[in-house]
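Standup notes
- HV: blocked on the assembly model, inputs below
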Amino acid sequence: MRFLHLIIAECIKLKTTLSLYFSLIISGLVVLAVYFGHTIDVHSLASLNTNPWTLYFNRAHCIITAFMIVPCLIFLILTFYYVEKRADSKKLLYTSPNHRITQFLAKLFPMLIMLLWIVVSFTLFTALSGYILGLRFPEYEMSFYLPPVKDSLVLMFHIFISCLGILGVQLFLHSLFRSYLIPLGLGFLFFLSAFIMSVMNMSWTKFHPYSFPIVVRDLNFIASDSRVLYADGLISNFELSSLGVFLIFLLLSFYVESKRYVH
Amino acid sequence: MIRIQDLTFSYNQKDLILNDLHMTVPKGAIYGFLGANGAGKSTTIRNILGLLKPTAGTIEVMGTKQIKKDYSYYSKIGTLIEAPALYQHLSAIDNLKITARFQHQDYSRIEYVLDRVGLAKSKRKKVANYSMGMKQRLGLAIATLHDPELLILDEPVNGLDPNGIRDVRSFLKDLQESGKTILLSSHLLSEIEKMASHVGIIEQGSLVYEGSMEALNSERQGQGRIRIKTNDIQKTGLLLQDRLESSDESFCILKVSDDQEISKIISNILEAGIDVYDVRRIENSLEHFFMDLTIKKSAP
């Protein structure tokens, strides 16, 4: 019950914040970009006896994992901490009758919910936009096939797990540094390095938590014959690594928060 | 309610911010914690609240020395430390709802505290659009929302207009009458004089005075001063060099301990052939008392 109170407090803090609107619309914006991309190049979707949805979903997944999910996550966490830093709230929160770790977990909860919403809504928006595309261009027979919603949800679940490592690192950076600009800058630096490493197929990519969503997408790639290559419900080593990174950095954040003094 | 013994605090083990500080805040008191800027008031308060770790010494708050570990004690303490911690993008009501949730309280007292600090009309306005005084009032509302036994207020009247200061004074007096203990840090001596039942004066990290307001008043009365005008100020100054506090072209300010001494001083001046034109007693304000103590402490 006490933990629920803290979650309610965290939800009140989110009212009218950028993070709330950001998480609500970011999937829609990505899907909108995918949709308009296909209206320009809709012919690439059409090939005989293949499900046009598969290609459509693959492209959407490619954009969200390579370009969107990591910066989106960095911004999402930033807005949570920006609100606190702007309010100089540590002196208020640390003199409330709650353990600091409980407070930290209460803040983590809406973050996870928002991240989950982003990955789930992405699939729903992609399916919706695909149907609209099918209505505009019936000759590509989108309505004759079923969208791979289940496969996409499975893939997005794997991507959600692969993002947890990044979440852990960013939370730790925000706990460690007083300025919110340093975690933001470092987060983008890590993202860019991961992006470059994965584009260049460097072997070190698999050790870089910020590249896990891209790697995991590749592993779970929905093949053009609608066969999911790696989505048997189990999690890959990269997701396990992501969970490990998440837990390690969460513990480090707990340590930093519990030892922190407010000058 | 608060007992501090041998409190020492330093950020770098070299420069001591607090040095063997002793302090006792009695239950039910309004304890005026006075000190110049940088004297160590806020650092003391942060140490009391567990926001800083003392280098040495013990702090006992409401019977516990482990306030940071036994965080349930925070439900009995209301705090306002310097500028209040407010979520600028939210209204006053939402800020209070957050505090209520953090204190595991319902929302029943929100309207009361808003009304008490005079923010009932602007409760739905975004805090970012509040004036400094309004933010300070909201900070007080947040500090008192959960009806704490102990209030620790660091510069609560900062940014308030005279009406606001009067309202806060009356609010704090009411709280004291209802049995609350208030530790009130300020550099506004006149405010402390009007509100406090006990006073502690800190200078360079040590408490140089602590006592009740009555004790302080009687001590002040024993340290009277007179302003005297004569036909030869220079000669008067030289004659009463040991009592001279200051002088200018027209007056000498002299320290006196009682009324008999005033008569003796006048006789001495007259015997020296100096004409006395005017003698006036100067009320020894808290400001002078404070200055005396802090100058003594600062002197090498």
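- HV (later): unblocked. The CA atoms of residues 203 and 297 of chain B lie 7 Å apart. Chain B touches chain A at residues 11, 46, 49-53, 71-75, 77, 79, 81, 83-90, 94, 97-99, 101-104, 142 (CB under 8 Å).
- Next: hand off to the docking folks.
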